[in-house]
Structures are given as structure tokens and as C-alpha cells.
């Protein structure tokens, strides 16, 4: 299993709107893609730091989803919410309970 982790710095006062964006635009889109298992949004409202974690069956499935949205489209999606570009990384899920 693969975890795709996104790190976001959300502008002050935009956390609720960012949460709604993730729930309505991002999670609903990835739920339609092959190999998607589930996802989470973690939020620190004091600092604006947010983390998304999406779980995929394989690295290829996670990469295929990432390629389904162009960098320009992704930038437009997040630009009103973020203070800097997001950082997206893939990790192997090496262990779980």
C-alpha cells in the first residue's frame, strides 16, 4: 500500500474553506480512481499547517491519479487558500496495526 502525503500552509481564516475544498473537490475526485482506499485531512488551526494522507493500492495507481490533474489546474485549485505551493510525497506503508 502507498500513502500520498500532501503538506499545505493554509492562509489565516481559510481553514474551513480549505476543508470544504478537500472534501468536495479532492476526496470526491480521488474516490473515483482505481486503487484509492481512503484519505484523511489533518489540520492545525493555530498554525495553518494541514496534511492530507491518501492511501492507494500501488504506487502506479497513486501516480496515475496525480497525473490526472495538471500542475496548472492544481495551482488554480489551491491558490486562494495557500501561502506557498503544496509539497506532495509518496511513502510505502511499511507497517500498520
Fold blueprint:
Layout: E1 2-9, H1 15-30, E2 36-43, E3 49-56, H2 59-67, H3 71-78, E4 87-92
Antiparallel strand pairs: 1-3, 1-4, 2-3
Question: Keywords for this structure?
Answer:
4 strands, four-stranded antiparallel sheet, 31% strand, globular, 97 residues, alpha+beta, 3 helices
Total helical elements: 3
| Biggest beta sheet attributes | 4 strands, antiparallel
Helix content: 25-40%
Radius of gyration in whole Å, from Cα?
Answer: 13 Å
Low-confidence stretches: none
Order of the strands making up the biggest sheet: 2-3-1-4
Distance between the termini: 14 Å
Share of β-strand residues = 25-35%
Going by helix content, strand content and strand pairing, the class is: alpha+beta
What's the pLDDT, averaged over the residues?
Answer: 94
Describe it.
With 97 residues, the protein is of the alpha+beta class. The protein is built from three helices and four strands. It has helices spanning 15-30, 59-67, 71-78; strands at 2-9, 36-43, 49-56, 87-92. The radius of gyration is 13 Å and the shape is globular. The chain starts with a strand and ends in a 5-residue tail after the last strand. The model has no long low-confidence stretch (mean pLDDT 94).
